[in-house]
What we know:
Layout: E1 3-7, E2 12-17, E3 36-40, H1 42-52, E4 61-65, H2 75-87, E5 95-100, H3 102-114, E6 120-125, H4 128-134, E7 139-144, E8 147-154, E9 159-162, H5 172-189, H6 191-199, H7 201-205, H8 209-229, H9 244-253, H10 261-278, H11 284-296, H12 308-315, E10 321-322, E11 325-333, E12 336-341, H13 345-357
Parallel strand pairs: 2-9, 3-4, 3-5, 5-6, 6-9
Antiparallel strand pairs: 1-2, 7-8, 10-11, 11-12
Helix pairs in contact: 2-3, 3-4, 4-5, 4-8, 5-6, 5-8, 5-10, 9-10, 9-12, 10-11, 10-13, 12-13
Bound molecules: glycine (GLY).
Amino acid sequence: MPIFSVKTPQHAYQNVVERGIVRRISEFIPPRAGKVFVVTTEDVWRLHGEKLKGQFAGKSAEVLFFPGGEANKRLSSIEGLAEQMMDRGGDRTSIVIGLGGGITTDVSGFLAAIFMRGIGILQVPTTLLAQVDAGTGGKTGVNLVSGKNLIGSFHQPIAVLTDPDVLSTLPAREYRAGLFEVIKCGIIRDRSLFDLLDHQRDDILALKPGVTDQLIAGAVNIKAEVVTADEREGDLRRILNFGHTIGHAIEAETAYVRLLHGEAVAWGMLAATRLAELTGTLKGVDADRIARVIGSYGPLPAIGDLQPERLLARLSSDKKTLQGKIHFVLPTSIGAVKVMSGIDRALIRQATAEALRKKS
Ligand code: GLY
């Protein structure tokens, strides 16, 4: 199975994609590391905890539970986890293992970023979404009531261990939510990955090993390349936000409880694709194909009740709004995107309204 290298100015590490790697986490713990803190949720620990037991012989290890869910991705959770680390003997040699989905990797990564001004984190993503996106790239953080991921830090991990085997216990809805991030990768940078998603939908939804591994590898490769080129999102990394501008507004507007992140991104991609068509950056035939492929991995939870005006109002507090300008990542073809700002508000409203009314 493949290994993908991420190189940033401060740090180089690998994302190892390999079936069964969860049973070999201990091989990736730096020899000089002190106490190991596994940050996870109770449901993930019930499913995968047994695979970790016995791996930390000779090291002291503690499991810290976090309630999970976007609503708990808050500074108060970080404080609670840090207090537990102190109570259980954490120090500057400790390391954190983030075992879980994207919320867990974001929270555990941020905990590691600020505990005693920064300790190591090994990311072990257990959802498809975290495997192909959140676990790699060092973005860590928590939400504010005003918006998603507004407090955080870049903190690159020691390594990312991606085990496709763990997906077999993932609820179907969560798996499909992760597939929307893979579709995103295809649209922004890899037409052949998009074609695979289009042509092998049934095998992909059935989690057939060959095609699943190919998808994960394709998406992780894109993530590793993009982060290596632009860790701090000054330029190329912005393309990973395709679908996230409106997606984040949808998540905030639905109080983070009605949709999974990947589902909100799927709605955001539908709106951005329509916007690309309306602004003339994308041909109708490509826009229709993108919408069809996204729809084929649905159904998405309906959000026709949301007011486009309220979503637009939320865009201005998103991190991607710079000096009052909303930036959109828009496809120019399948496999290529560009970043645009200064788009007429009426067009954004129209694209959002039309996308929301669509049945996925
Ligand atoms: N999830 C987008 C990024 O890592 O930049």
